[in-house]
Amino acid sequence: MKLYFIPFACSLATRIAIEEAELDAEFVQVLPGGRLPDGRLFTAISPMGYVPAMETVGGLALTEGPAVLTYIADLAAEGVLAPAPYTEERYQMMRWLNFISTELHKSAFAPLMSKAAPEGAKAWARELAAKRLDLLSVHLDGADYLVGSFSVADAYLLSILNWCEHAGVPIADWPVLLGWRTRMRKRPSIARAMGAEMPLLQAA
After folding, report:
1. Which fold has domain 88-187?
2. What is d(CA 103, CA 131) in angstroms, rounded to the nearest whole number?
């Protein structure tokens, strides 16, 4: 199993999941310019050029964050990264994975961190971000996790909330989310994953 990643991109969620589940994986950093260490273009693996991308145990080139995270959750021991299949909690986890992917990551944070996005797009994205963070703040008030116990959805949300300062999103305006992020960063799997990628981010 091989994970293609960019330090502190959304692929961090997959590294966290691998750490949490204590799975073996090879980590391949996508270099600036979209090249791989062996000189190939990353688009040979991920046609859109997005991380995370994963070469599965069976040799499938798997892309799209929620799909990659679900794959890791299914490799892990039952209950470690996801509720049991066919339960209401499992579908709630899938709901949050898709919410984070479409409503928070792509709709709000992607424009805010894009150098190409005009100011009008960024202003609209800030409004979207605020509404979505309001919803998350209400949901997580008094809760440790998005659904019952720690899941890949929490790993994904943590990875996105790590971008707040860079994106100009004042997370302190949502004390519940700031507190949640602070606690999550102390989780051993998350601390290990962030510790592995921080030197790579600083060297980039």
Report:
1. Glutathione S-transferase Yfyf (Class Pi); Chain A, domain 2 (1.20.1050)
2. 10
Split at pLDDT 50, 70, 90, the class of 119 is: very high
Q: Integer distance in angstroms from the first to the last C-alpha of the chain?
A: 25
Q: What is the pLDDT of residues 165-199, one digit of tens each?
A: 999 999 999 999 999 999 999 999 999 999 999 99
> Are the C-beta atoms of 97 and 156 separated by less than 8 Å?
yes
> What are the structural domain ranges in the chain?
2-80+190-203, 88-187
Q: Say which CATH topology domain 2-80+190-203 has.
A: Glutaredoxin (3.40.30)
Q: ω before 32 within 30° of 0 (cis)?
A: no
In this prediction, residue 204 carries a pLDDT of: 74
> Of all helices (H) and strands (E), which one includes residue 161?
helix 152-161
